[in-house]
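Hi! If you just cloned this repository, the fastest way to understand the data is to look at a raw example. We've pasted two of them here, unedited. The first protein comes first, obviously.
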Amino acid sequence: MKSQNIIPAKAISICYAEDERWFRDDIVELLENSGFEVLCAKSDGKALLDFTAITERRPDLYLTDLNMPEMNGIQLARELIARWPDSKVVLLSSEIAPYFIIEAKQAGAVAFLHKIIDHKNLISALREIHQNGHTQYGK
């Protein structure tokens, strides 16, 4: 259900990959209610990559979970950056071990956010990343 929020003329577009359907659905609803345009929400990195390869419109941001069945978030970030170097990839994960954060950054991710992030901070982080290419939230 859409909120009564006024959507800006140029909403920030997002493609999202998350294997946990309940979490994916909640985040999609949050994003849409906050004025973002969700172009796709897929259950794993491979499905998101396949969608990106066939669509004419690239999103402003890619949001992805770390651990997913066919292609994890780090592999997805590598593939997206290799094919479309100006892609802005953000990992959203419950795994916050330094190893994963380093791997994500080496793969080209612009940010690594913890899933327990306050929803208001998640929205702020995504807006900052879209505008500045980085955020004060997360790693």
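Ok, and the second one:
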Amino acid sequence: MGVVIQLVVPIATYKVYAVGSEVEVFLREQRRRSPKEAAKLQALLAYSAQYGQPINEEKCRLLGDGLFEFKANSLRLLWFWDSDCMILCTNGFAKKRQKTPPTEIERAKAIRSSYQAAKRSGRLTIKE
């Protein structure tokens, strides 16, 4: 099965992509539910596209195993690095507890594995 990645932030130093459609659906839903938080998350993505990963752990932190999370108030967006200065966002959620739910981390790992398998087999579609 192929995997589609969609460019989220165009014309920047780093390319920010959404792997599959889950991130796009999450961002659209958050713009409707909590526009101010969604705008902060979008600004964080734009900043990261221009300057790379934020150093401030209040905005971005390493979860382990090469996975990171962008943080905008209660919204979280999990992601990982790939070659060619690519930030690949896997899934997002609204935080309800102190720690990132293990199910969300496992979901991000599964999406990353699907992406890597599609890339190796030549079944990766990139939408700019």
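That's it. A detail worth noticing about the second one: The helical segments are 22-33, 35-51, 102-121.
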